[in-house]
Amino acid sequence: MAIIVRLDVMLALRKVRSKALAQHIGITESNLSLLKAGRVRGIRFETLNAICDYLACQPGDILTFEPDPPGGETDG
Amino acid sequence: MTRQATHIAHFARRLRFTVWTLGLLLTLVTVAAMLIPFPGGPNGAYLTYDGLPRAWAAPVAAVSIGLILAGLFELGRMLRLVEADAAFSPRATRHLKHFAALLMAAILAEVLVPPIVRMALHSVLTLSLDSNDALLLLVSLVFFLISRLLDAAAAYQEDSRSIV
Known about the structure:
The complex is a heterodimer. Chain A is mostly helical. Chain A is 51% helix and 8% strand. A two-stranded antiparallel sheet of chain A has the order 1-2. In chain B, helix 2 runs antiparallel to helix 3 (90-122) and helix 3 packs antiparallel against helix 4 (131-161). Chain B is elongated, with a radius of gyration of 20 Å. The mean pLDDT of chain B is 87. At the A-B interface, helix 3 of A face loops of B.
């Protein structure tokens, strides 16, 4: 997957627990866990805004783009 | 459950009770018409099946009402799922499809069975379709379309759930 979720890194850097963040942004811990693992189809701007607000960071600190290696798509 | 979902659940609950009441009334009227052949006045329940002999009218009515009751039962089960906030579940869609199919079968039975019986008895084939039957056939087809739309809505809901 080209979009990498780095939320766990930001949580560690800010020394914030997942539970506290989940409560602040108003989603369940299980959904936050899915988001951290990158197992979601998308993230709402509302959620992203709340995360950035709580962790005092930019969207780019949470989401990064890594291009697939050349020919990687034909392997599967 | 959101406020809108709560309103929908309450509406579904009221509708379900209406469906059960309607089913009960249909059953009572049909049974009364079968058990009391000639009420002896304008008041009472009558079996009217296009001049069919009573021996035939009663079973034809029983089949038709049986199909309608089965359809109402399926509709009631679907409404129960709507109350439980599972309107877009595969089970709800399946119940709606069953309701539509049973409704269509009941209408077709009302339209087709009397002419078939008359043809068997008198060797005369007369087929009639009134506007009520035509409209109900159309409504049952619309219910099939709605069940397809529910399938599509279920896919959208699944998509929505995977967006946090």
